[in-house]
């Protein structure tokens, strides 16, 4: 075999074909970026913080509405205007200690106004 190839003879490498690598086996990164795990957590944490904040505000609003309602009900009770009422923590009323500052105190038979006798 001679080292010189004539133009009539085909070269040994002319008929060889290069095998194509399937696209799923390529090691080059694709053009579409894959989301990072940390990047997914950012919007989730943002939403969770807002949900928590809304919950705290709603709970505070409910508590304030309830305490306002209770305060209005207590203000309507005649106990604080009674002469038997004392602002003592242990015994607020000497005559009816179990009824004092409840809704049953509206019909208290022993009520005496501080200003006048009844």
Report on this structure.
The protein is mainly α and 118 residues long. Among the domains are: 39-76; 78-118, no CATH class. Helix content is 34%, strand content 0%. It has one helix and no strands. It has one helix at 37-76. The radius of gyration is 45 Å and the shape is rod-shaped. 3% of the residues are buried. The model has no long low-confidence stretch (mean pLDDT 77). Residues 1-34 are annotated as: Disordered. The chain crosses the membrane at residues 38-58. Keywords: Membrane, Transmembrane, Transmembrane helix.
Question: What is the gist of this entry?
Answer:
It is built from one helix and no strands.
Mean pLDDT: 77
Tell me the helix content. Answer: 25-40%
Report how far the terminal alpha carbons are from each other.
138 Å
Number of strands: 0
SSE topology string: H
* Contiguous runs where pLDDT drops below 50 for at least 5 residues: none
Rg from Cα = 45 Å
- Sheet having the most strands: none
Secondary structure elements and their pairing?
Layout: H1 37-76
Region (Disordered): 1-34
Keywords: Membrane, Transmembrane, Transmembrane helix
Transmembrane segments: 38-58
Question: What structural keywords apply?
Answer:
transmembrane; single chain; membrane; rod-shaped; transmembrane helix; mainly alpha; 118 residues; 0% strand
């Amino acid at each position: 075999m001679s080292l010189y190839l004539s133009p009539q003879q085909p070269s040994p490498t002319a008929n060889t074909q290069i095998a194509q690598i399937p696209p799923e086996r390529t090691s080059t990164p694709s053009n579409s970026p894959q989301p990072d795990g940390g990047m997914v957590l950012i919007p989730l944490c943002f939403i969770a913080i807002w949900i928590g904040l809304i919950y705290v505000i709603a709970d505070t609003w409910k508590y304030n509405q309830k305490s306002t309602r209770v305060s209005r009900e207590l203000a309507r009770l005649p106990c604080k205007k009674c002469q038997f009422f004392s602002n003592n923590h242990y015994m607020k009323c000497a005559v009816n200690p179990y009824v004092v500052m409840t809704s049953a105190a509206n019909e208290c038979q022993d009520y005496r106004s501080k200003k006048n006798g009844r």
